[in-house]
Amino acid sequence: MNTATVPSLDDRIGLRAPLLFACVSLLGFGLAYSLIGTVLSGIAFPHQATGSIVERDGRAVGSSLIAQPFVDARYFQPRPSAAKYDPMAAAGSNQARSNPDLRKRLAEETAAIAAREGIALSEVPPELATQSGGGLDPQISPRSAQVQAARVARARGIDPAQVDALIAQHTQPPQYGVLGEPRVNVLALNLALDAQQRQHLDTRTRR
């Protein structure tokens, strides 16, 4: 009888250690590590661990980390998104500056913003017409917010100074004072506008 293909006792013992290590690694690094990380992050950073979800009146309205489109003239607009603001498809256009399609899109986007805000083409901040690398940046620069202030105030029928004040209140400085540029979270600013207007309406109703 040919026994060349039958594993010996030593072979079976030799396989036991790597198989055991593989199982322990799978459970330890694949399951236990993930569970421990989830639990610890939930304790240390409960808001961030659940996606930095923003709620209004007990209902989720978005995430402070992900941009979303606002089509109503009463709201500030974020930067354009190559991913259509889909967090599962985060990406930029990956087009070089020399790409004619990119140049055409930028020209069209700049013209559309200028028409929407009632400003000259030269007054449109370049970043407001360009897509970010991930396509989901939730913030814009203070300048990009300021060029939209007049349109928002007009659509809401409020004093432009009130809108400017909210922009100033929601302008975040560079992280740690040196990293990045001043920025404004679009969702937070729009929610603050709604809250301010509701407060004014409630005050008038009480009178």
Automatic annotation (TrEMBL):
Domain of life of the native organism: Bacteria
GO cellular component, one term: plasma membrane
Pfam family, one: KdpC
Membrane topology: Single-pass membrane protein
Parts of the chain that traverse the membrane: 19-45
Compartment(s) of residence: Cell membrane
Annotated keywords: ATP-binding, Cell membrane, Ion transport, Membrane, Nucleotide-binding, Potassium, Potassium transport, Transmembrane, Transmembrane helix, Transport
Gene Ontology molecular-function annotations: ATP binding; P-type potassium transmembrane transporter activity
Major site of localization recorded for this protein: membrane
Keyword Acetylation set for record: no
InterPro entries: KdpC (IPR003820)
Quaternary structure, from the entry: The system is composed of three essential subunits: KdpA, KdpB and KdpC.
Family under the similarity heading: Belongs to the KdpC family.
Task performed by this protein: Part of the high-affinity ATP-driven potassium transport (or Kdp) system, which catalyzes the hydrolysis of ATP coupled with the electrogenic transport of potassium into the cytoplasm. This subunit acts as a catalytic chaperone that increases the ATP-binding affinity of the ATP-hydrolyzing subunit KdpB by the formation of a transient KdpB/KdpC/ATP ternary complex.
Protein name: Potassium-transporting ATPase KdpC subunit
Organism this protein belongs to: Lysobacter silvisoli
Lineage: Bacteria, Pseudomonadati, Pseudomonadota, Gammaproteobacteria, Lysobacterales
